[in-house]
Design a protein that fits this description.
This protein has about 250 residues and is α/β, with parallel strands linked by helices. It is built from seven helices and ten strands. α2 crosses α3. The N and C termini lie far apart (about 55 Å). Bound molecules: S-adenosyl-L-homocysteine.
């Protein structure tokens, strides 16, 4: 059995209870060494075989899984944050399907949410934005033309940009070209929930300058939007006048 497990954004105790149990029971752990906190491996059995996928190809990863399966070993494939975002998990699942190897997925806390916690922010504020756009600049992996940041920027929604902290100049240009005001608040959240977490508050036009000043090159999320400003309308959910399924409001 193979379990794809979300390791969480960094802090060791932000893995799920299920994820921790799966690590404790694993005979083989293949972890994404570039971003997964290695301290999570302390939960593993002493005799567990540990592999760092940062040094491996997809084929090598699958080979280890296949040989472990033959020996009836429990395999954990440990991904950073939640596996469903930029995790390259689908290609692994498809290969396992080819070999008739069963797998399950245990979700994790994405750095998207680690960053919100670090910022003590709410991405979806009434009268500000009710949508979160999760995207990235193209790297070796291309981004579909229709999803270019300058097009997504037209919505002026809350935006979280992954995998792009080395391209802040260009990111900034596209955000502004698309329609964010130059002074739209932006945050660079470096290593959210790790001990060396850093939050840099800036604006869309100053992203590159702030990134350079703080020597941010990787492991950061760029979060953009007026939700960072903190002006918004109160929710209807907790409005004393508002009646809903679970509560009678004062107007009734
Ligand atoms: N599946 C992961 C994302 C993997 S892609 C998740 O759900 O978080 C790797 C990118 O995620 C990095 O380039 C960075 O943009 C972001 N990232 C991962 N961990 C982070 C953290 N602790 N703080 C800020 N950004 C992080």
């Amino acid at each position: 059995m193979v379990n794809f497990v979300g390791a969480g954004p960094g802090a060791v105790d932000l893995i799920t209870v299920r994820g921790k149990r799966l690590i404790e029971n694993a005979d083989v752990i293949i972890y994404a060494g570039s971003l997964v906190n290695p301290e999570l491996l302390y939960f593993a059995k002493e005799q567990a075989e540990i592999y760092n996928s940062a040094e491996m190809t997809l084929e090598e990863i699958i080979e280890i899984i296949i040989s472990s399966e033959k020996e009836n070993k429990n395999v954990v494939r440990l991904h950073t944050g939640d596996p469903s975002l930029y995790g390259a998990v689908k290609e692994q699942m498809d290969m396992l399907d080819e070999y008739n190897i069963k797998y399950d997925v245990c979700p994790g806390v994405s750095s998207l949410f680690g960053a919100a916690a670090a910022l003590k922010a709410e991405y979806t504020l009434p009268d500000v934005s009710q949508s979160v756009i999760i995207t990235r600049m193209e790297g070796r992996t291309p981004v579909p033309v229709k999803e270019d940041i300058s097009l997504l920027a037209e919505h002026n929604a809350t935006m979280a940009v992954f995998l792009s902290s080395s391209m802040l100049e260009e990111l900034s240009k596209r955000l502004i070209k698309g329609g964010y005001r130059e002074d739209t608040p932006a945050a660079i959240v470096y290593k959210a929930t790790w001990n060396d977490e850093k939050i840099i508050m800036t604006t869309v036009v100053n992203l590159a300058k702030s990134g350079n000043e703080n020597k941010i090159k990787k492991t950061a999320l760029i979060i953009v939007g007026d939700f960072l400003k903190g002006t918004y309308k109160r929710s209807e959910l907790y409005n004393p006048l508002f009646t809903h399924e679970f509560r009678k409001g004062a107007d009734n």
